[in-house]
Amino acid sequence: MNDIREKVIGSFFGMAVGDAMGRPAKGLKSAAVQQIFGVMDDFKDVRPLMGKGIKNYRMQGLYGAPTQCALAVGDALLENKKQFLQNSVKNFQELAKSGPEGYFGNYRNHSASLWRAVDLLDDQEEHASVHNSSTSLFVNLAVPLALFQGRWSKTLAGQCFDVCLLMSQNRFEVVGTVLTGFLVTRFLAVHPEENPLAPVDILQEADEICRQAEEDYQQRFPSSEDGGLKGADAMSGALKGLAEKFHELDVLQWLCEYSNSFTKPEIRHPSQGFVMNLLPLALYCVLHPSEPNFASTLTHSLSHGRETEMLGALVGAWAGALYGFDNIPASWKSGLVNAKEIRLRAEALSVRRGKKDQKDLFNMEAGLTAKEFEEGKRNLPKGAKKGIQLKSSDLWDEEEEETSVPSKEDRAQWRQFQKEKTKSKRDRRKNIPSMDDL
Question: How far apart are CA 141 and CA 162, in angstroms?
């Protein structure tokens, strides 16, 4: 296998691995990830946690919606590259049909942004959704496009732009999708053993790509109010700031503060589900690994918790493009559910033509979702384990209802509120079990 093919396969396969490895910890706070799972260095089993904070079963080693959405685009592209947008719409809608109870069709994701996006596909004019999602769920749609093309071009930029518009018209999501596609091709071109990464240079290149995408977006949607007056160059500003502060200890805290300028929900952690902070965090993890290899890069990124599914998919795609398929641990390759079909599609993208022995996308995903559903029914908790009394807020980063938050202008009350909140979190974490306790 030649080097570029090995990297293309590594990127697509790595996306699925990162997605599947992140699913068990999705929504977990970073401290809870460490206390429950320790290091996220394999596909974790959630069965011991059923009824102790987790409501929805997640099959060990099975990827979720980010990879499913990328598969929908990838299969459409391999079927007919000239009509991949129309065929992508068909695939998205097919996957939404006749799923088990509690699922949105056959998608393994319970996010409202996904079903709203798919539900609106019939109402689009000129392939532009009215949906305004900025969770970063759709940025991975660019991965199969970038792997199919192999090199960055205006054509690829336009494809990334248009494919995101199928699902979201949000400025930040669209620009983030273009950026994701560029970075896949950028990492395909890097050979870390020969040419060490130059993080600041890559960030500056990414900044330029974002600026062009932002200009294109503004021309097409001049009335967009996303991000207010400062939103027009928000993503490029995030990358510029990341480049300037890359070696500073508080760079991720700065990223949270920067993101807060463009969203109403407060961003307190870089791994929260907002594309403005989640995508730069994923890029930072790839450019600033604890060790220069696929395993360490992905493992470290998942320690941030919260939106680990989308974060893992992004980091897996980029790190796979950078280090290649051979650098993915053998146990992760064998532990990934549906690994054969994922690799077949990765190989197909590398040679730009479909494989005759590929399974039908709908039947394949319907079977996997049904299997997860049946496993979930068998693993419903019969009763909470004695001695462990946990609320979902003890572990999971649900929407926290702050009904009596004092004004920041009253400094004394605000400081007291923060002290009590910190003490409450510390007390709850003392009761979080480790895997050894469960």
Answer: 10
Following DSSP, what letter does each residue of 212-267 receive, concatenated? Answer: HHHHHHHHH-TT--TTGGGGGGHHHHHHHHHHHTTTSTTHHHHHHHHHGGG-SS--
Cα 46 off chain centre by: 20
> How would you class 75 by CB atoms within 10 Å of its CB: exposed for 0-12, middle for 13-18, buried for 19 or more?
buried
Euclidean distance between CA atoms 161 and 175, whole angstroms:
7
pLDDT at 403: 34
SS3 165: helix
> What is the spatial distance between Cα 89 and Cα 124, in angstroms, rounded to a whole number?
11
φ, ψ (nearest 5 deg) of residue 322: -75, -50
Q: Are 288 and 251 in contact (CB under 8 A)?
A: no
Q: Which amino acid belongs to residue 397?
A: D
Instruction: Work out whether the CA dihedral 380, 382, 383, 384 comes out positive or negative.
Output: negative
Place of tokens 């993503």: 235
For residue 126, what are the contacts with CB-CB under 8 A and spacing of at least 6? none
Nearest to 298 by CA among 328, 271, 253: 328
User: Taking Cα atoms as reference points, which of 300, 395, 434, 427 lies closest to residue 28?
Assistant: 395
Contact 308, 26 (CB under 8 A): yes
Positive or negative, the Cα torsion across 84, 85, 90, 92? positive
DSSP 18-33: HHHHHGGGTTB-HHHH
Q: Can you tell me whether residue 338 is helix, strand or coil?
A: coil
Averaged pLDDT, groups of 10, the chain, 438 residues long: 89 98 94 92 91 81 98 97 95 94 90 91 76 95 98 97 96 98 97 81 97 97 91 96 96 97 93 97 96 96 97 98 97 98 97 90 97 92 46 47 44 61 56 52
- The phi-psi region of residue 352 (left if phi > 0; otherwise alpha if psi is between -120 and 50; otherwise beta) is left
What Cα–Cα distance (Å) separates residue 80 from each residue in 213, 364, 365?
Answer: 26, 20, 21
Amino acid sitting at position 37 = F
Contact by Cβ (8 Å): 347, 87: no
pLDDT at 386: 40
Nearest to 11 by CA among 395, 413, 406, 322: 322
